[in-house]
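User: I'm putting together a small comparison set for a docking exercise, and I want a reference complex before I start. The sequence is below, and the ligand is 4'-deoxy-4'-aminopyridoxal-5'-phosphate. Could you produce the 3D structure with the ligand included, as structure tokens?
Assistant: Of course. I'll restate your input first, then give the structure tokens for the complex.
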Amino acid sequence: MSRFLSSRFASLEAYTPGEQPRDQQYIKLNTNESPYPPSQEVIERVNADEVKRLNLYPDPEGKFLKEKLAKLYGVEKENIFLSNGSDDILNFSFMAFCDEKRGAVFPEISYGFYPVYADLYHVPHVKFPLKEDFSINYKDYCNVDKMVVIANPNAPTGMEIGLFEIEEILKSNPNHVVLIDEAYVDFGGTSAVGLVRKYPNLMVSMTYSKSRSMAGARLGFAIASKEIIEDLEKIKFSTNPYNINRLTLVAGEAAVDSDIYYKENAKKIIATRETTVRALKNLGFLVLDSKANFIFAKPPNISGADFYSKLKKKGVLVRHFEKEKIGDFVRITIGTDKQMDVFLQKTSEILKGR
Ligand code: PMP
């Protein structure tokens, strides 16, 4: 900490993103990116003409993109908030809907950024443990009188909770935002977007980083009541109105136009996931039931940390969390069939002590 940093942040522990090593080419199965490129339409529309217009600011409202997303999800443009990746939505939500008195709750094992944002804004927070089987006990989140944040499917487990449970949480916390983080919903999960009309306290956040192959472009969006969206816009226009650059807006619109391509990719990833799960179970792994583009698995007769480093030495990167209760597991992003074949090959070698 420098002598310049405000004492407000003295005890803040920043989020640690997954490795993005530059030392060699790895099979990268560690940050839940899509193994497939953006659609041809995206590639063609982000062209030299668009680059030539970078002297101009982007549309701070993102009107065209909002219109396209609203149509795709069957809501109004006023129900959509656009952001620089969905981390931005989380940031704005903790800023807008919490403070020293209005707290937040989220699962103990979930996306590691939730407690960081809570600490950043000095938000008192409670982390509820998962059940023995790693599922979320929705009853913990009923009547909490705080903002509720749940990733569905959850990360890093990949497991989902049902809409019935989400409705119970929504009904019992009418004066607080219930943020359902659907970063991974397109890989077989069930979206809560259909409940937005019924529950003014529901916010669903989504991202282009996973199923839409645009992690590098930084684009996320939230779907919620007009009331919630207006609050988020107020915060955005009080911090950085141009938080989405021109090229990303264009790419985001083109991606909606090629929705079929992305749905096909999601199907391929689901099929690859199921094949990989079967293969890992045959090798003796314990694998949680995933509805995401990653799996959370515990190798037999070797620690999670060891398995992670042995794989890295063999050129395959997965994610290991040095954390109580999940230290025995690794999180494996689903790549192409070919990448997963290599991963499985290297895994067999490691289990045989080679
Ligand atoms: N939510 C969850 C559960 C995530 O795993 C991630 C990706 N790390 C995000 C949100 C944020 O993704 P992005 O900012 O790229 O949209």
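The chain has eleven helices and twelve strands. The pocket of 4'-deoxy-4'-aminopyridoxal-5'-phosphate is lined by residues 85-87, 111, 151, 155, 181, 183, 207, 209, 215, 220 (CB under 6 Å).
User: Thanks, that's exactly what I needed.
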